[in-house]
Amino acid sequence: MATPWGVGTLLLLLLASGEGAGPEKPRDFCQGLDIQDQYDPFYLNRTGECFARCLQLGNVSCNPEKLERYWLHYEFYLVEKNLEDKVDLPFVKALVQNFSTDTSEDLLFSLRPAQIPRQVMMGEDKPPDRVRLPRSFFASLPGSRSAVRLAISVLDIGAGDLFKGPQLRLEDGSSVLNNHMVGLSVGRTPVTGLPEPLEITFSHQRQPPNATLTCVFWDVNKGDWDSKGCSTELGAEGTVCHCDHLTFFALLLRPVLDRATVQVLTHISQAGCGVSMIFLAFTIVLYLTLRFSLQRFKSEDAPKIHVALSSSLFLLNLAFLVSVGSGSAGSRAACWIRGAIFHYFLLCTFTWMGLEAFHLYLLVIKVFNTYFGHYYLKLSLVGWGLPALMVIGTGSANSYGLYTIRDQENRTSLELCWFQKEPALYATVHGYFLITFLFGAVVLALVAWKLFTLTSVTAGKEQGQSWKAVLTILGLSSLVGVTWGLAVLTPLGLSTIYIFALFNSLQGVFIFCWFAILYLPGQISTPSSSGGTARLDQAPSVSHE
């Protein structure tokens, strides 16, 4: 009888203890709790999942500092405690091997993606991704050892927050090439100041546009990337990093437009826009003066189109100066309005440049059957009305808002009210500009062909026709917006960005010079004196209003 009573009591006690303890709470490995020095496959796989789970905008609670420390110490573990010579996991590939310090050759290791690092023997082709340790490397290590245990690892850090640091966590365009880090370690002994640096080669197709490639290492003390002790050697098919210490390395892609560059470009644009506005105002005043003093100015369409372009460009420059000067000041509604106004006058400028090209096509290319009733009125409906419809459509999608440009240290370089949704920016600005620019470029090319053909025919009769044709093309190019086309060349480097900012902001000066050459009283009274430059724009009007 004692046995059943004892068993019943035991069951009762077990049930009671089970109710009190409850189910074990699942571990959150991304918090970095209880994972220190735990490097068996279970912990490695669970912690490796955090590379993808710890996203900046995700709902997973993460502790990047603890997780980064965990992986930095993993190389120490590989050298000091790991008994295996290879690690092959989805997010980390590693080679651990003993080497004699009395070596007379450089050591070369392959870092092929998705493969375990391996030593490349003499006679083999050099792999595109590789590490080279100079023969003097082992002799430079502290202490006297006959052999050294070396760990080489490739860590796939993914697109999450880990190993991003302050420079990369905010979306400023910076990134780690292929999200790969290369680690080298001989244990906890720090290795710095190598007399002959090691070489790490990262292969890539070509240097990305508007970005610089910089060799960096992970600074444990700062918790960020640093380039001290590393130099960058750019190549056609890859970049070689020369570093004088051991740690985790990567190739960092940074935008060309750092804080200082953005500020300089902003000052150039502001100065250029100010000068351009003055000359655009001169153009408008000159037109009004000639319109009231000369009867034929009231019926010609070409001067009206030039002034409409000048007006839209003047208002665009004014909107730009206001937007840059005010930055993010004011409410969201005020920022929305400033962005919409800036967008509207930009589209008006593009449209009137396209209409300049259309008018030029009728005057020079088509010539015959070019009568349109109320011609300028119809052009005005397109020039001012079409942009309004596009802005209304863009605004209804709530695409306007605060736009921020950040530098390499994630500090705000420039804030202005512009687009907050990229699809609308690409469709209504980039796409629309491309259409108007290509149309203007084609028309300008046809006009140039006609002018130089005419020049070759009349070369024996009149002197100086070639340079007049060149001046004519330069003047017309300011009307159809060739300076805006320099934006296509900006991926070539920083110098083209400066050229674009300078010449594009001075478009108003070029328009005034062209307008003055054509329409000053001296030119009007003697049109033949300006040769090809004046006669082209003084063709008969294409409408009668």
TrEMBL record:
<feature type="region of interest" description="Disordered">
    <location>
        <begin position="526"/>
        <end position="545"/>
    </location>
</feature>
<protein>
    <recommendedName>
        <fullName>Adhesion G protein-coupled receptor G3</fullName>
    </recommendedName>
</protein>
<keyword id="KW-0325">Glycoprotein</keyword>
<dbReference type="GO" id="GO:0007166">
    <property type="term" value="P:cell surface receptor signaling pathway"/>
</dbReference>
<feature type="transmembrane region" description="Helical">
    <location>
        <begin position="469"/>
        <end position="490"/>
    </location>
</feature>
<keyword id="KW-0297">G-protein coupled receptor</keyword>
<dbReference type="GO" id="GO:0004930">
    <property type="term" value="F:G protein-coupled receptor activity"/>
</dbReference>
<keyword id="KW-0807">Transducer</keyword>
<feature type="transmembrane region" description="Helical">
    <location>
        <begin position="306"/>
        <end position="329"/>
    </location>
</feature>
<dbReference type="InterPro" id="IPR057244">
    <property type="entry name" value="GAIN_B"/>
</dbReference>
<feature type="transmembrane region" description="Helical">
    <location>
        <begin position="341"/>
        <end position="363"/>
    </location>
</feature>
<dbReference type="GO" id="GO:0007189">
    <property type="term" value="P:adenylate cyclase-activating G protein-coupled receptor signaling pathway"/>
</dbReference>
<feature type="transmembrane region" description="Helical">
    <location>
        <begin position="496"/>
        <end position="520"/>
    </location>
</feature>
<feature type="signal peptide">
    <location>
        <begin position="1"/>
        <end position="20"/>
    </location>
</feature>
<keyword id="KW-1003">Cell membrane</keyword>
<keyword id="KW-1133">Transmembrane helix</keyword>
<dbReference type="GO" id="GO:1901223">
    <property type="term" value="P:negative regulation of non-canonical NF-kappaB signal transduction"/>
</dbReference>
<comment type="similarity">
    <text>Belongs to the G-protein coupled receptor 2 family. Adhesion G-protein coupled receptor (ADGR) subfamily.</text>
</comment>
<dbReference type="InterPro" id="IPR003910">
    <property type="entry name" value="GPR1/GPR3/GPR5"/>
</dbReference>
<dbReference type="GO" id="GO:0005886">
    <property type="term" value="C:plasma membrane"/>
</dbReference>
<dbReference type="GO" id="GO:0030334">
    <property type="term" value="P:regulation of cell migration"/>
</dbReference>
<dbReference type="Pfam" id="PF01825">
    <property type="entry name" value="GPS"/>
</dbReference>
<keyword id="KW-0732">Signal</keyword>
<feature type="domain" description="GAIN-B">
    <location>
        <begin position="107"/>
        <end position="259"/>
    </location>
</feature>
<dbReference type="GO" id="GO:0030183">
    <property type="term" value="P:B cell differentiation"/>
</dbReference>
<dbReference type="InterPro" id="IPR000203">
    <property type="entry name" value="GPS"/>
</dbReference>
<keyword id="KW-0675">Receptor</keyword>
<feature type="domain" description="G-protein coupled receptors family 2 profile 2">
    <location>
        <begin position="265"/>
        <end position="519"/>
    </location>
</feature>
<keyword id="KW-1015">Disulfide bond</keyword>
<keyword id="KW-0812">Transmembrane</keyword>
<feature type="transmembrane region" description="Helical">
    <location>
        <begin position="375"/>
        <end position="393"/>
    </location>
</feature>
<keyword id="KW-0472">Membrane</keyword>
<feature type="transmembrane region" description="Helical">
    <location>
        <begin position="429"/>
        <end position="449"/>
    </location>
</feature>
<dbReference type="InterPro" id="IPR000832">
    <property type="entry name" value="GPCR_2_secretin-like"/>
</dbReference>
<feature type="transmembrane region" description="Helical">
    <location>
        <begin position="274"/>
        <end position="294"/>
    </location>
</feature>
<comment type="subunit">
    <text>Heterodimer of 2 chains generated by proteolytic processing; the large extracellular N-terminal fragment and the membrane-bound C-terminal fragment predominantly remain associated and non-covalently linked. Interacts with PRTN3; this interaction induces the activation of PAR2. Interacts with GNAO1 (when palmitoylated).</text>
</comment>
<dbReference type="InterPro" id="IPR017981">
    <property type="entry name" value="GPCR_2-like_7TM"/>
</dbReference>
<dbReference type="InterPro" id="IPR046338">
    <property type="entry name" value="GAIN_dom_sf"/>
</dbReference>
<dbReference type="Pfam" id="PF00002">
    <property type="entry name" value="7tm_2"/>
</dbReference>
<dbReference type="GO" id="GO:0007193">
    <property type="term" value="P:adenylate cyclase-inhibiting G protein-coupled receptor signaling pathway"/>
</dbReference>
